[in-house]
Amino acid sequence: ETTYHTLEEGMVEYCTTETPVTVTAEAPVEMLAAQAECSAKPQELKSRIALNSAKLLQEHRVTNLHVREIAQHLENQNDLLQMIRRSQEAQACAQERQAQALEGTQAALLALIQMFRPALKDLRKFLQNANSANAAAAAETGEGVENVPPQTEDAQ
């Protein structure tokens, strides 16, 4: 007789086969009972072993599924970390180019200041001379000397 067992709905099935006990006319009833007990115990052990094996097999399948899910998750994490690393590298390159551009701008501004410094000095002298000439002409004529503020080197 073959008995089919199912651990969970739709999961793992296993079967046990029981050997039939044949009864003969010479065997006493006690022998038949003892034989049934002895054959029941090995059969019970076989059933337990089959059940345990089926449970272990199912747990193994579930564990493998979990391991695959974890591996997939780790691969996704690794891909994400690679993208973050590439992004940080791109940001570092952009910051380096920006720093170089700022250094270039600073150097250009310093060069312009150096170029304009003599021209500004000449312009200042010209304005002071023109202001002095206007003040002298106004003093001679007596017109509005009070309204013209004196130019100094600091006023720019």
Automatic annotation (TrEMBL):
Q: Where is this region: Disordered?
A: 134-156
> This protein is called what?
Nuclear apoptosis-inducing factor 1
Q: Which organism is it from?
A: Cirrhinus mrigala
